[in-house]
Specification:
Helix content is 47%, strand content 19%. The chain is built from nine helices and eight strands. Strand 2 and strand 3 form a beta hairpin.
Length: 268
């Protein structure tokens, strides 16, 4: 009996204090001095661990004991604040990425939550890039009516396809840890036939429609901070006045108001 109790105690100790590793290899790592693992909450962050890659770009970080599941960040270029996010679910994470100064590529082990997350976002952003090209074509170039109609039809098809995919993802709920971060990438897509300035106004007006300020998963990450900077970047054009910024900040704080902690962080 004592042996059984001792064995159970030993196994519980292993479970309680087991640390999973975040490891992989970096291509073009010559200029990478440190990898810094960060935990974020609202607009705040703290460093959990850091390491230096070896001469071949191989690295390994240990997640702290009893760290909650969720989204974490690795900063790999401190001077230029270059980073990537990953989802931790109490399992080891294998990451290979390219840290070339001019482009970034990342690859996770197949059939994992991170692989699914990045592949889903890759497909979404590819479609949005196609929509941007079609929009620029319709707005800026003289073309035959047939070509413009074709571009408009393709744009509308992509909008519908993206919306349907979000509905399907929500119903499937394949990776609950990653899903809030994917669904919160939804955005308002303006009509391609609207003038570009009207499109920009609609984007500002509906920017926060798909973001829930009380979402606990998003709060325990840098997601809200990134979205706030994205929102402010939308305002940066020659037409923006000081009054426009005041209105935008008021809208931002009104959106965050249901979450008092987030509101205080944004004010700070």
């Amino acid at each position: 009996m004592k042996r059984i109790v001792s064995l159970l105690f030993f196994l519980l100790t292993i479970v309680t204090y087991a640390q999973e590793s975040i490891s992989g290899r970096i291509a073009n790592a010559d200029h990478i001095e440190w990898l810094v693992l960060k935990e974020n909450y609202g607009t705040k962050s703290r460093t959990l661990a850091k390491t230096q890659p070896d001469s071949e770009g191989v690295f390994s970080l240990l997640m702290p004991d009893s760290i909650p599941n969720g989204m974490y960040r690795i900063v790999y270029n401190l001077r230029e604040n270059k980073y990537f996010d990953f989802i931790y679910n109490a399992n080891a994470v294998s990451i290979n990425f390219n840290a070339h100064p001019d482009y970034f590529e990342i690859d996770f082990e197949a059939n994992t939550v991170n692989h699914w997350y990045y592949e889903t976002l890759k497909e979404l952003f590819s479609q949005e890039n196609q929509m941007q090209v079609l929009n620029q074509f319709v707005q800026n170039y003289t073309a035959t009516d047939a070509l413009k109609e074709q571009a408009i039809a393709q744009y509308n098809f992509l909008v519908t396809d993206i919306k349907n995919k979000f509905v399907a993802l929500k119903q499937e709920n394949k990776y609950p840890l990653a899903l809030p971060f994917v669904l919160s990438q939804q955005r308002y897509y303006p009509a391609i036939t609207d003038h570009i300035y009207l499109q920009q106004e609609y984007q500002k007006q509906y920017f926060f429609d798909y973001l829930n300020p009380n979402d606990k998963a998003l709060m325990a990450s840098a997601f809200f901070t990134d979205k706030v900077f994205e929102y402010l970047s939308v305002l940066r054009d020659e037409q923006t006045t000081e009054d426009d910024y005041i209105i935008a900040i008021d809208k931002l704080l009104k959106w965050a108001k249901p979450n008092e902690v987030l509101t205080e962080m944004l004010v700070d």
